[in-house]
Amino acid sequence: MNKHNILACLAFFVSVYFVVPLAIEISGRSDFYYTLTSVALLSIASAGVWLTFYIGRINIGQGAFALAGGYVSAILITQYQLNFWLTLPLAGLFCALLSVVIGLPILRLRGVYFAMVTLVLTEVMRLTALALPITQGAKGITSIPLPDAVQLMGVTIIPGFAELDNPKIAFYMMSVSLMIAVFAVTWRLVNSRLGHLCRSLQQNEELSASIGVNTAYLRIVTYSISSFFGGIAGASFVAISQSVYPSSFQVADSVNFMLNCFLGGLGYVFGPMLGTLMLYFGWDLLFTAGKYQMLIFSSLLILLMLVLPNGVLSLIERKKRRT
Fold first, then answer.
1. Could you tell me if 265 and 306 are in contact, meaning their C-beta atoms sit under 8 angstroms apart?
2. Is residue 92 a part of any domain in this protein?
3. Is residue 112 in some structural domain?
4. pLDDT in tens, 49-85
5. First and final CA of the chain: distance in angstroms?
6. CA–CA separation, 312 vs 307, rounded Å?
7. CA nearest to 252, candidates 62, 11, 75, 7
8. What total number of domains does the chain contain?
9. Residue 77 is part of which domain span?
10. Among 48, 66, 117, 227, which is 20 to 30 Å from 319 by CA?
């Protein structure tokens, strides 16, 4: 990383960990903690969708893995009394393994065919949650306790959220830390040898296979990482809401995860983060439009994609070219 990138990272860390909490405390708008927590977790799920775009696949089924991750965490906490922090990676791993089973046949499909198959995944997961006794059907799983404390050699590393005066701050810190970790892993993956091989799948899979690239392996690995991100995002949402229902994540959520990537920029690792922020706050800002909210919102999205087909972050690249 060059000096400019290091300074940008430092500014980002200072902003999310110090400036934003200080501004919220001064303003007295503690509800913004929940808003920014939601944005951070949604961007984590969107980062997984971006990874599948990176190998040339359109993923409209991330909501299925977010829902599965939420249920895995809820079941392990309520029925097996596991600590939330242990269920978080387990939920991600379950979704990664599930994606391997699902991905083995459908990752052979391309373009619109793969997209249409993934589109039904969220609805299939919802119907599964309605039917299985362990998920308690339409009643869902409620009264999920807040995350417990984490101790190492008698030293409390993470306090119990129920013991805090304001758990919203703790959830905010948890979500932005997860977000930073996920995007750091994504950035490292893209800039690794594996990432360079994945990029070749965007251009010509036959050509990649002809020079010895194991395309099937790359697709499965990338899709499982993508689903892992969806799983931990879903598990984190369950911890915040302390409940999970079959309708907690729907097809519309899967579509929004995809839109976040388009808005921020498919060619940029941090595109999903910016896209999520824009989509979330853009929808809220248009709330005063009433019945015209959806019309205005959809028109603006279409216009933005026509003017900036490579996302908002492409403006930075345009500026660099001009200078």
1. no
2. yes
3. yes
4. 999 999 989 999 999 999 999 999 999 999 999 999 9
5. 21
6. 10
7. 62
8. 1
9. 31-322
10. 48
